Amino acid sequence: MNKVGKDDFVPGFVPKHNHGSVDYTSTEAGHVHQCLDVTSPPIPTQDGGHIHYTEGYVMFENGHTHYYKAYSGPAIPVGNGMHVHYYDFHTTEDDGHKHHVKGVDQPAPGTK
């Protein structure tokens, strides 16, 4: 396979790709945190699809931060040879509370 860029439309599965996302946590204790994320390369699933793993810290806010570890949902084709993944997770509890993060990551090449 030739080199594939982040904006290339490709049918099928593209190995070694990842996804980025920029989101905000739920509001807890009167504040939110920004969550800037880049996933792992794809992890094959038994049904022939794939998911991604991610972990990291949300941005420092209100005197503290939170850590998270999560897996995405399966690939969701969005047309034009691209796909996204849904994510839904909670951060660690710090400063007496935790945050909820959910959304869809940025599109990447491939339909599977």
Give your account of this protein's structure.
The protein has no helices and 10 strands. 0% of the residues lie in helices and 40% in strands. Strands 7, 8, 9 and 10 form a 4-stranded antiparallel sheet that branches. It is mainly β. It has one domain (20-109). InterPro entries: YmaF (IPR024307). This is YmaF family protein.
Concise synopsis of the structure shown:
This protein has strands at residues 20-24, 34-38, 43-44, 50-51, 53-57, 67-71, 75-79, 82-90, 100-104, 108-109. It contains no helices and 10 strands. Residues 93-112 are annotated as: Disordered.
Write the layout of secondary structure elements.
Blueprint: E1 20-24, E2 34-38, E3 43-44, E4 50-51, E5 53-57, E6 67-71, E7 75-79, E8 82-90, E9 100-104, E10 108-109
Antiparallel strand pairs: 1-2, 3-4, 5-6, 7-8, 8-9, 8-10
